[in-house]
Amino acid sequence: MTDAQGGFRGWVAARKGVWSRLRFTSLRLRLVVVFGLVALTAAVSASGIAYWLNREAVLRRTQDAVLRDFEQQMQIRAGLLPEQPTQDELQHTAGQMANSSQRFSVLLVARGGDGGPAYGSSGGLDGFTLADVPKSLRTAVNEKQQVGSSDRTEYRLYWQRVVEDGTPYLIAGTRVGGGGPTGYMLKSLEQEAKDLNSLAWSLGIATGLALIGSALLAQAAATTVLKPVQRLGVAARRLGEGKLDTRLRVSGTDELADLSRTFNNAAAALEKRVADMAGRDEASRRFVADMSHELRTPLTAITAVTEVLEEELEMESGSMDPMIEPAVRLVVSETRRLNDLVENLMEVTRFDAGTARLVLDDVDLADQITACIDARAWLDAVDLDAERGIMARLDPRRLDVILANLIGNALKHGGSPVRVAVRAEDDSVVIAVRDHGPGIPEDVLPHVFDRFYKASASRPRSEGSGLGLSIALENAHIHGGEITAANSPEGGAVFTLRLPRDASDLALKADDDAKKGEA
């Protein structure tokens, strides 16, 4: 059974290989077909014209010689017969006429001594008879014509080609003037037909050879033309894979060489542009990272001061002047917001630089979500629908960041209560965060994960930085997961987080990519 399956798989693979080659050489096939059709049309046309011309020439040459001989025999031999010849005389004269160089059958018809018709055939009584002559030819032969200056006799020579049992014949007839006998001639054209058939076969073979030659020529031409095109296709695929140093070897001065030069120039320009953009992007990331790092030192000091001010505000017997209390509260809130913004910026730069790492651990999703909600005092505003025991191997810190952003966004912009539901699938876990607010406008949905995007342009200043959902999405991606946003049919927005049950493979791949980038 295993051998049979292996043989079947091999056959399927072979068929796929054949079809892939046919698809790969479809342009080649079209060129060969076009060349073949052109050659076939030209060869068939030339062969047909040649056959028609030779056929007419052969038949006319034979026909003219036979008719000329027959006409001479009628004048020389039939013209010497008496006005009322006997059957023996007609028979003897017909035999003499048939023994000419052209070898045709002769039938002579005259008025006998008893006033009735007398017949004489070169082949005897069972040979060429009047019944073998078409009626139209007999009528034309016996029709008397006016004698003019160019006509020497009042009867003309008429001929006709007929086919009997697949054999072509030439039948001709004329009458001797002055009441002489009427003569008919039957000449077989079988030999000429065989010669023409041989010519047709020769022309057919020549046509076939021309078709084969055109196919070989088309193959050679297609190879010459398509090989540079194939190299261009391979180079374009390599360029699309990010190998921007790909170049084509240029040889010659034809259009394909110009195309190769154009490709090389475009590739060089693209490589330079990408390098410039990468340099600017790296400089921008370095600037943001350096700026965030430099801001952390003064922010640490400012945060310590604001904590002291916040403690003074919370003391019941505080000595703070009521006039400056609002300003102090504003400084405390804005300092906390600035500190969160710097942390978010540093996290974004780590994602952009590819230095973000996963620290994996076995996580009970119900416990993780409960800890996230409890740490932020959201227990009264969030309903959790999650069974204990749904385990996944994830990064707990990054999962907490994702959950905090999704639940916090639902509480801030949606409506309570916020419902968090967890379900397990075969190789993944799905966490849905739904609020009961007005939902997300349709024009905003495509941009909810964009950095620094805010739905209301008239309120650019808010508690959020516009980076939370973007960071949540990056943390999902580094796990090999995804976050989608939609509006629930029952009202409110729904954010769906899908993560793999085990992100170990993604963590190893990310570490390998980071090591390669550092190298």
TrEMBL record:
Q: Which residues form a coiled coil?
A: none
Example GO molecular function: kinase activity
- What is the name listed in the Swiss-Prot or TrEMBL entry for this protein? histidine kinase
Q: Which domain of life is it from?
A: Bacteria
* Record bears the keyword Transmembrane: yes
Q: Which CDD domains match?
A: HAMP (cd06225), HATPase (cd00075), HisKA (cd00082)
Q: What are the record keywords, sorted? A: Kinase, Membrane, Phosphoprotein, Transferase, Transmembrane, Transmembrane helix, Two-component regulatory system
**Domain named HAMP: which ranges?**
223-275
Question: Which InterPro entries does this chain map to?
Answer: HAMP_dom (IPR003660), HATPase_C_sf (IPR036890), HATPase_dom (IPR003594), His_kinase_dom (IPR005467), HisK_dim/P_dom (IPR003661), HisK_dim/P_sf (IPR036097), Sig_transdc_His_kin-like_C (IPR004358)
